[in-house]
Amino acid sequence: MIDEARRLAPRFTARAAETDRDGSFPAEDFADLREAGFFGLMVPSRLGGAGAGFAEYADVAYELARGNGATALIFNMHASVTGALSGVSDELADALGLPPEALAARDDYLKAAAGGSWYAVAMSERGVGSRLSRMSTTYRPVDGGYRITGAKTFCSGAGHADAYLVAARNPDDPTQVSQFLVPAGPGLRVEQTWDALGMRATGSHDLHIDVTVPSSALLGGVEGLALVVAQLAPHWMVASYAAVYVGVARAAVDAAVEHVTARGLGGLPAVRARIGRADAAVAAAHLAVREAARRVDEAPGDSETTRWVWRAKLLAGTTAAEVAASMLEAAGTSAMRRGHPLERLYRDARAGSLQPATSDVCADWLGVDALGGDPDSDGVAPRW
Ligand SMILES: Cc1cc2nc3c(=O)[nH]c(=O)nc-3n(C[C@H](O)[C@H](O)[C@H](O)COP(=O)(O)OP(=O)(O)OC[C@H]3O[C@@H](n4cnc5c(N)ncnc54)[C@H](O)[C@@H]3O)c2cc1C
Q1: Keywords assigned by UniProt (predicted)?
Q2: What integer pLDDT is reported at residue 226 of this predicted model?
């Protein structure tokens, strides 16, 4: 799949300027991903997928993002849903007391993904961000299922996915925050709100929800699992984007090299040094992401693994923004023209630090930890 990602990346790059300009969904990139079997990347082989682990996902995400960060970011949402579902081992299911019907439903969702369905994430809300403990979208048990009502924002790929992971809270017991897989169709309405600085082609629009879903849509089959899962598998909530933004940073270096070579600027010491520093910074951030990913596969939930997950997100976000800015400066004003790859990459890279956990939140988490506190509970605001 990594080779396939490398093969597809130049095709994504060729289409990136147009989808960025129009803020349109990269439909052809997604057709390529579907045809090449990427929607089953995280699905276990027994269910027809490629059975990738987190480290393999990180390598794939990096390569896809070198082609188009927006495409890689939308795909990241699908990988997060399928990766988190696949990560529920039998032991974990036992420990959480998950009913057998929920495991059967999980397998059905994963099989559908291997067959070409793809899932988006509708978690964030206006004024709340992705803080699960503050969700205003609600669900209520009804005959045979749940009624979900609310509004989401920043939903990448909204209007194009086959189903949406929706986080909601039970108003009768606000401590219960649960996640549902809601199929596209009646009851979901997209409001086209995403006209953003960067990652424009993610089409991260608002999604209005007023829908009744069957009981099988409740992921895990037990209410109140959302916060538990966030703490058990922070890599999907915190660090999966990291590989995407390191890929964006590397794409900025690649674009700068192409630009300065074409213009004969490569002999200028200041330009060379900028490229050299950027190359080293991207390589270092990439190593941190790979180290975090390796540890997630080997010792998920371990405190040192979790530390690396937060480090990786922090380094990827800040490195992408700094490197893209420096590469634009090395290339000069002509690279600022609309449609130049560095102009898009500069804007796309800016989003890295803003995605949760933001660089500031990662730094705070690591600082509390270094000072001997409990980073999950000693922050000034709830982490989730
Ligand atoms: C390109 C892109 C695509 C996205 N796609 C999706 C998607 O598909 N699905 C989805 O659900 N969401 C998506 N998001 C949204 C994202 O997941 C976050 O929910 C959103 O960026 C957070 O919103 P916010 O910045 O408004 O709020 P906040 O997270 O509240 O951040 C606002 C400010 O408060 C600070 N802050 C927040 N929490 C703390 C804390 N605990 N301690 C100290 N300071 C804190 C932050 O550092 C920041 O400065 C996307 C975002 C982007 C940029």
Answers
A1: Flavoprotein, FMN, Monooxygenase, Nucleotide-binding, Oxidoreductase
A2: 86
**DSSP code of residue 125:** B
The pLDDT value recorded for residue 382 is 73
222: tokens are 């037990």
Mean pLDDT per 10-residue section of the chain, whose length is 384 residues? 97 98 97 98 97 97 98 97 90 87 94 98 94 93 96 98 97 92 97 98 98 95 85 79 97 98 96 98 98 95 94 97 98 96 98 94 95 87 73
Distance in angstroms (rounded) separating the CA atoms of residues 191 and 272: 45
pTM for the complete prediction?
A: 0.96
83: phi then psi, degrees, rounded to nearest 5: -65, -40
Where does residue 307 rank: exposed (0-12), middle (13-18), buried (19+ CB within 10 A)? middle
Best mutation site among 204, 227, 240, 314 for ligand 1 pocket (most ligand atoms within 8 Å of CB): 204
119-222 shares its CATH topology with 233-370:
no
Q: How far is the CA of 365 from the centre of ligand 1 (A)?
A: 15
Ligand 1 atom nearest to CA at 77: 8
Nearest protein CA to atom 7 of ligand 1, as residue: 155
Give the Å distance between the CA of 270 and the centre of ligand 1.
36
**Residues whose beta carbon lies within 6 Å of some atom of ligand 1:** 73, 77, 120-124, 129-130, 154-156, 199, 202, 204, 351, 354-356, 358, 360-361, 364, 379-381, 383
User: Greatest CA separation found in the chain?
Assistant: 72
Nearest atom (ligand 1) to Cα of 156: 8
Q: CATH number for the 119-222 domain, one of 1.10.510.10, 2.102.10.10, 2.40.110.10, 1.10.3720.10?
A: 2.40.110.10
Of 1.10.8.60, 3.10.20.30, 1.20.140.10, 2.170.190.11, which CATH number belongs to 233-370?
Answer: 1.20.140.10
How many whole angstroms from 124 Cα to the centroid of ligand 1?
Answer: 7
Q: How far is the CA of 355 from the centre of ligand 1 (A)?
A: 5
| DSSP code for 358 | P
* Amino acid code (one letter) for 344: R
Residue found by looking up tokens 């999966």 in the block: 240
